[in-house]
Each structure stands twice: as C-alpha cells, then as structure tokens.
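User: structure tokens for this one?
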Amino acid sequence: MATKTSTFLRRDSSAMRSNPVAYIQEALSGKGPKSLEETLRELPEGTHLPTEFRKSLLRSYRGRASTLIDSLRRTNSDRIGPIGLVVDEQTGTGFVVPIAVNLEGRHSPQLPFRPEDALQVLQLLLLASSPLKGIPGFELEHLGFEESSGLAKSPKYGPSMDIVAALSVLDFYSARQHPALSAACAVVELHPRDRHELSPVGCSKQKLEAFVREHEKGSLLIRHSADQEAAQFDKYFSLCWSVDTVKSLSDRLEEKGLLEPLWRKSPIGPDEFKRVLNAVDSNSEGPTQAYAIELAQALCEAPRTSQVSDAAILEAEALRDCIPRHLGDDLRARSLSTASARKRRSRFDDLKRMYVENGLYAAFYDSHDFQRMVRALTGWKRLMARKATFGGVPDRVPVRNTWARAAGAISVAGWEAAFLTSVKEQMRTDKGTLPRTLCYLAEEYLRHGMLGKAKKIIDKAEASLEEAGALEDRKNLLAFPQGQIANANSLWAIYYLRSELGRTMKRSWQDETATEIALSGRVCSYTTARYMQAIARSNYLLHADLSRAVGELTCAVDGVRRSTQYINAPPGSPTILHFVLWSLQLLHAAWTEDTKEWRGARKNLRHFFTLKIRRPMKMWYSEPWSGIGEKPSPDAAERLVGSLIWFNGPAKRLGPARPRQR
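Assistant:
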C-alpha cells in the first residue's frame, strides 16, 4: 500500500468517489485489517473499484470484508467521460479529476483552466477542420465546467487540462453517447509559442498512473509522439491518438464525427446575439484576439431572427472591424472599416456616423496616416465642442482620443487639451475607461519629452486601477483573466510606460512579476512584447546584465512572432505587426552579431517599404532606415527601433491639416 500522505485528497464523498483507490490506500497506510471495513463503509453508495484492485484487497486481507468489497465491483455499464489529470507536486502522486459541462456558465474555482481556454481550443479545432461546414454553434459561449473530484486544494493553473476540457464539451454535445469519449484522457497541450502545435504535458507518467489506478482501462488516450513515457500506457486504452498538431487532432475528431454537433444552422435571437457579442468583446484584446476575430466574423455572418436590432448589428460589425487593428493587421482593419462606413453612411444619424468613422480612422494610426486622421476627425471634435449634449461620454471620448493621438504624433496643437477634456469627463461619469486615456496621455508626454508630467499621469493611471480594486491580485491580472482584459492591458501599458520613462532618464525599471510571466511564454503577445523590449533596451543601453537583456529581447521577438501567426494576411502583404517583428529582429541580430538574421530582417523590411500602401511609413522612417547597411550595427538598429511610433518614437511636425467640414 502507498505510504505517501497526499495534500490533495479531502475526506468527503466526492473525493472518495472520484479517487477511491488513492483514498483507500491513504486510509490503510500502516493500519490493520479492521481499518479496511471502516474505510469501505465510509465510501458513498455507487463507488466503483477497478477489478484488479478489488482482487488485490481480497488477497491482502484474506477475505475479510469480502461482502463490502464485492459490493464495490466495477460494472461494464459505468461511463466516466473525459477525465482531467493532476499531480500533487509535494508527493508526486497523480489524481483524476472528472469534469462535466453545464449550460449555466458556472465554473468550479478548483479547475486549473478557464472556460475561454477550452473554447479557444475548440475554435482552433474548428478552424483546422477541413472543409469548414458552416458557423460554429454559439451556445458554446456560455458554457461552464464543474469538477467532481473533491480535491483538497486547487491544482496549479496551466494549460495541461485545456484539451480534455474541450473533449468534455464534445462529449456534452454528442449527448454523452460517443464510445471514444467514454473514458478519455489527453496528455497534450497547446504549444506556448505556436497555437497550431501541440506539446506533451508535464508529469504524464504520474498522471496516467493515476488513471490506470482508478479506472484500469480507458477508451481513448491522446498523447504526443515525443512522449515516450505516455506511450507505455497505450495498452490500457482501446484507442490511442499520437498527435503533434491541432490539425492532426482536428482530423481525428472529424473522422469520429465529434465536431459535427458544433456546427449550427438555425438563426440566433437577440439574447444569444448579445451573449456572443460580449464574448467577442471580452476576448478582443490580449492573448485570445485570434479567437475573437473569427468569432466576430462568424457572428456578423450568422443567420439572425428579426428581433436582433440594427443597433446590436452595428455594434457587432464595429467590433469586428476594430479587432484586426488590435491584432496588428491594419490593412484588414482599414478594408473592413471602409466598407462598413460606406454601407452605413447614408443609413444612420450623425452620432452613429461619428461612431463608425472613428472606428475607420483609428485604423489609420498604425499606417501613419496621421494628417488624414486629424483632418477627418477635427470636424467631429468641433461639433462636440459646440454641442455639449451631443452623445454621451462613451461616444465622445474615443473620438477625441483618436484625434489627440494622431495630433500628438505630428505635433498639432491641442492634443494635450483634448486628452485632459476626456479625463475630466471620465472622472465624472466613466471611471472604468479612465486608465486607457491616462496611458495614451502619458505616452504622448514621453514622446514630447515632458517627463515630469508623464510620471504624474502614470502614477494616476495606476492609482485609478487601484481605486477600482483591479490590482488586488496583480499576478492574476497580468495573465489576462476573463472579464479583466481592459484592466490587464492597462497594467501592462503602465509597466511599459514606467520602463520607458526609466530608460529615457537613463535608469532601469521593471516589475519582476510581469517579467517572470512574460518570460514564461504563457501570455507572451504583442502587449507583453512591448514591455519586454523596453526593459531589454534599457538594460542593454545601460550596460547592465547583457545576457539577460538579450533574453528579454528574444522574449519580445517571440511574442510579436506569435501574434503574427494569428493574422490571415495575403502573401506579399505584410502587416504592421510584421514590420515591428522585423525591426526587433534587426536589433536582436545586432546585439548577437547574427549576420544571417540581420540580412533576413533587412530584406523583409526593404520589401515592406516598396509597397505603395506603405508610402507614409517609408517617409516617416526614411532617416533611420537609411542607416541600415549590410552588416549588423547596434546603433543603427536602435535608431530604427527607437523611432517606432509604438515604442515612444519622437513626434514630428508635418504642418497643419485642413479639417473636413461637417
């Protein structure tokens, strides 16, 4: 019998039912036969034991309590479903965690994954399915998960159970009848840096030992081809899928007909439309942007009942149009927004037209068409100044801020006053969106060398998050928890701004927790990459730990590269995010003296600047680009990266822009 004492199992009926073998082994450790009877009587009615373990008890205790043991015989009709697996790090003991789907959105706090993690896996599987058959079923958006393991403490948060959580959804939508999922395990997870690849989970041997201990035989094992420890357990499962990519897993599921229930044909109503729209909004910034953009596109194309209002459709289309901008795909954002603006221009009143046009011209920021932005939005800005009652604060602030960001980039007078007006209005009625405006303002102060004002505004932005109670668990917030995406982005922006302020003042600043999370790769994206490049450049330029600086820059490069994988850009049409990636690669190549990487990045950037649509950027970066020669040069690369508008690049004076008349 086992001699280890686990910290995971709790003395209650759910733990006894889900992990009865482990529970009995713990209870009997170092005790006599009488304890067996007492322990068996504690087990809840309906508890099942594997046949071999039941026989071993009979042999070990020479027939004592045989009646009780026999009553716990496992029956062939017992169906388990997909099962999660966890390991107690203190003892190395594995435990099974049965999970079940519900439609009420309830999620057990003891599960080491979030509903959106499982939904993202499903979205990737559906997108990898060939051919796509229709529109994903939107009822997925309000699923919750319950666990019945009764563990004494929550497993460590991580991606190891995301795949099996997705399997539990497939099991739910197949009416829990599919034989392949009657007792299924998965010991693979999404690769932390390439969401189209799979990788083995940690401690797969201990986890599968727990499954065999509790259930003896299984229906399906999903494992990685490189996981030799997991391969030793193939004999315990009727089916074994060795899969290394999301596509290969999707193909296997498609062959079994398990993806079919997720494609819907019936129109959706207003309640479901709003629920899905909320899901799109909550995932539109941060690591789940790729999931959000596909979901938004599907929502806009889905058949709808007549009860879905025009206002709801407008909101969905506007959100769909702006997500590519957050993702770094400015060309797609401009294309979608332009088409939407033309379609709606004659259909809506001035307030809705302002809302639509702001979405359109915000997409021009990344393309560096700042004069066009100022010219187009100045009329709306003047209209708001004349009519104080025109629209509410949520309508007015985004337009004013978009204008101010463009005006600040080209030193048009009034950008500071515009931001301060937004701050004043938000302080009065809409404090929830205040941190974003403050971060925009601080960034412009840094760009214009107004360091004292920048520091005060950065402090104010962090204080506003503190006042809202968002910073009670900073570590969790930095990992982009569901429903906290806006606050998470604001905190990452604050840390980026503090590091940029420090670098400008020739000091080094970083938050160790944020750095640790970014280096882990779990949430590495453009948002985290912006922070990592700032601290890397600071450490390098200040001659701190140079090897650490290279590691931090490598993390930033990987984060941007990972973000580009979600962009469905046509061949030969690189996006803004590609431009940022190649610029950072130049800097990385210069620091590491990697001539091959330097020439590759230089070649890609040269092609980027030859595109007609990139003419404004070619003019903007002409001076630093002219210094990029054939050989790696840290100074030349730093001049280019240091001039990027997203990395606190300096403002320029391009002359006044004549506003459009309203």
